[in-house]
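FORM 7B: Structural annotation worksheet

SECTION A. Query
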Amino acid sequence: MSIQAINRIIASRRGVLSGAGATLATLVAGRALAATPIRIGKAISSSFPMAGLELGKEQGFFEREGLDATISTFQGDGRMQQAFAAKALDFGVGSGPGMGYAVKGVPARAVASLASEPRNMALVVMNNGPKTIADLKGKRIGVSTAGSLTDWLARSIAVKEGWGPDGVEVVPMGEVRTRNVAMKSGELQASVTSTEEGLDLQEQGAGRVLMTFGEIVPDFHTHVIYASDALIKDKPDVVRAFLRAWFKTAAFMRDNRAPTVKSTAKTMNLSEKVIDLAYDTEMGMMSYDGAFSPKALDIIRGSLKDLGVLDFVPDAKLLYDPQFTPVKL
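SECTION B. Predicted structure
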């Protein structure tokens, strides 16, 4: 074979390889361009389960499902539901009682359960504050927003103690840091917040956890995942892709303690020691398939009237869309 022939073969193969490389680059670029942008809201910043959103994004679970996720944090369920009403969100992670906003006309509804009984919620006080639950009768308890999970949990103390739903004064004050300042000044006597924030106060020597809410409310959906009505109707495959990404994240959190603690501590701006202390409790309440519990839904239905979110107990079918669960990975 002549040198010229050999050179022609080499040039031809280079052309094929170059064309294959260009085709691969085009495919990769096409996939990147095809990623669906989604806007995700978190009702609060002080939640271990909700911090999984940032972890899922870091680990690439959303990207691998073809989703380009942007995460925003709100000061309570009410604010997040306002964003849904303004059509500024596609998905949200909030409380079970937040499901009632769909009945009031907010164009979003629950599509999966994220966490069961509220083991991750605590009643915290300052060191010089009330010593027992009985000391809280008639006192002021800080919560995130009116009609939120923290609101209902505060009132559940009074109901359980036999004081009636108005046996404590519930004060909506937004972020937990604002409530902590109010407790230090004496404006509040206690606050409903995450177990991690309570443990953080204890670590600082400034306060203590008076109780957690898992035993008071054993049947509940503490956190649920919401999707906009528009997505549910027009793009159900995007909803399914989001849920796959989330429950892969939940499984990763369960099976990988160290990176979960590290990421969650960063997102919640707390020490890794505090997050590690709370890890087993938190993972014990997480859902891994999103299935709804009829008993928990019944409790939530009643809570909506208790909170004044609705003036009646709604039918469960108005609160959530069952078509997407259980999620199978």
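SECTION C. Observations
Residues 3-34 form the longest helix (32 residues). Residues 8 and 14 are 10 Å apart (CA to CA).

SECTION D. Sign-off
Analyst initials: ____
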